[in-house]
Amino acid sequence: MHPTAVPTTSPAERTISATRRWAMLAAGTGAQAATSAMVTAPGFLIPELHRPVAEGGYGMSLAQAGLVAAAAMAGMMCTLVLWGLVVDRRGERFALLGGLLVTATGGAAAAVLAQPWPMTAALALAGIGAAATNSASGRVVVGWFPPERRGVAMGIRQTGQPLGVGIAAATVAVIAHRHGIGPALWVPTAASLVVAAAVAVVVLDPPRPPASAARVVTNPYRADSYLTRIHAASVFLVVPQFLVWTFGLTWLIDDLGWSAGVAGLVVASTQVAGAAARIGVGWVSDLVGSRMRPMRAVALLAAATMALLGLTATGAGHTTAVTVAAVVLLVAASAVTVADNGLAYTAVAERAGPFWSGRALGVQNTAQHVVAVAVPPVAGLTITAWGYGATYALAAALPLAAVAVVPVAGEQQVS
Length: 415
Hints:
The chain is mostly helical and 415 residues long. 78% of the residues lie in helices and 0% in strands. It is built from 19 helices and no strands. α5 runs antiparallel to α6, α12 (226-254) runs antiparallel to α16 and α14 runs antiparallel to α15 (320-336). The radius of gyration is 20 Å and the shape is globular. The N and C termini lie close together (6 Å).
């Protein structure tokens, strides 16, 4: 155990029934899925926002549409640490319920406004609410599951993100194309309300050590660079993740000429692969007793996959074989680039302990979203100038940087 930390579980925590523990995990996963659907849904509006006005669209450039798509992420980014402080002070259940209700309020306002720039402000509010889920549901998992099961449990919890993206991909683009961008946003709004009801029924705050123990816990960031290096590695890895999430659908429609419905189903299937990847690497981390060694392996695989996707995407559409290879690599890249998230979240919460985990997870998410917010507009400019293939290939350099930063040597056993 790290000398500045306190135990993240106690024998009393493990006496709760298995049914209740897994029900809370399901609620936390659902909360992550609903808020992820809300945050990523605007990205699937890009084809309609970019479509010429003469064809019934809004005539926005890719960079402008990318700004709209980034609004919810921007709102999330600005409040992740604040929600982490709420988690540390008021508990996970309070933060989850409050965040989901704010998310639903912002989503409903965006659906009613249904015009790009006014809608942007409402989406930012939805992102503010969505930030709560990232800190709170992670602490629920670490607080209620013993160390030897946390990798798989957090992997399952982290499937909420790709599943939420999958829900948005399968519904938002099609609804927006047929009925407009406003109706499309009711999907994640309704999901947030349904999950809020589930959280109210089943989630309990994990027990903590006595409050007096907090006085002897020092700031984990002052002890060593372990948490900081995890944050840095995650930042490098989040760029290709958000690149393929945001522009994979648009690439299939614009470059390959696919329909919005078929492209949306393909992107939705990539999220199923991503969910499986998170559970798989979580299981591996429990098996080998390490979060960081599997995370480094994921970084290497992400670099290779993005480089190959860049090569094949450049020639996609010219021959069937290359097109098939490019689409398969898009699916693979979507899975690999999200596989590290559960490992990082588990490691951060374990090292930070119950009195710092909310803020540490807030910092983790803030660092990722600072970069993620910049991905849509910057990638939009890069794609416009050099094309999808070159942009995918350039993104392969960042996972290579993550390989050098992952703190494998500084990892310690947590009880």
